[in-house]
Amino acid sequence: MTLVRDTAGRGLRDLRVSVTDRCNFRCGYCMPRELFGADHAFLPRNELLSFEEITRLVTVFAGLGVTKLRLTGGEPLLRRDLPELVARLAAVPGIDDLAMTTNGALLATHAADLAQAGLSRVTVSLDSVDPATFSELADTKVPLSRVLDGIEAARVAGLPVKLNTVMQRGRNEESLLGLVAYAREHGDTLRVIEFMDVGATNGWERSGVVPSAEILERVAAVHPLEPVDVPRGHVVAERYRYLDGKGELGLISSVTRPFCGDCVRARVTAIGGLHTCLFSPAGFDLRAPLREGATNDALTALIAGRWSRRDDRYSEQRGLVQVTARPEMSYLGG
After folding, report:
1. Is the pTM higher than 0.85?
2. Which strand (E) or helix (H) includes residue 124?
3. Contact predicate 97/69, CB 8 Å
């Protein structure tokens, strides 16, 4: 194994791989319908990395120290035969945590196959358990009940479930305690994420951010909490447990309490672009060398070289530096 560190001494341990840029929802903070409408040109199939190419890259990343892998999109379950890819990746030496982030709309159909293929756990993006608020935020005709059925199917299949909520001022604040109650009832971990300025299409303004400190105060007023007394390490969420023993709450505070100094995460887009930060303006092309016959040793050198030059810390510098041409969330996979 060849361990690599960036200019700030951060290693490379987590990898997110997008398998498609397509999605069946049009959430405003990710794929607003006015910009991703019926005439939007998604990537042609031949431009996407094949399952063989994804597996090769993951194998190379594992040789550089990656142990945690997450499949993303777009909506990853729109990629045909995804359980086949999961089975390939679960067999890669060194990968001991294989997760997926999904909107849950297709999860009921695929949860059992994904679990059997070797998926470790699933994260479902869920911004409200109120049907009207859910439909408005996701901008979809898919009913909330279908997503909740998918979450239940994941539980039945033995997949641990986390729920991710992007909290936006004036949009879904009133959904917070309902989400907390739902997660507590079913034993799921709810993670509340501060609204971030990813891409250039979501209309981000700082006034739309609900600080994690406020979230914690509101939840603790109803359900007392205490910090989970374990080293945070390189985990992005601050963890709290309910005093009555009914699970945990996670807070991801990339705006008000940035964690750039602990970031050990890389992202590979559906077309093989390596991004070393969610806010990096351009990706490092890995598809071209893959398709030109590069050996695994050559790919290792390319990735290690790029990571060793990494100096990203956008969230710590927000407002101090100007970043142009930021890729969209749907392209990077969150």
Report:
1. yes
2. strand 121-125
3. yes
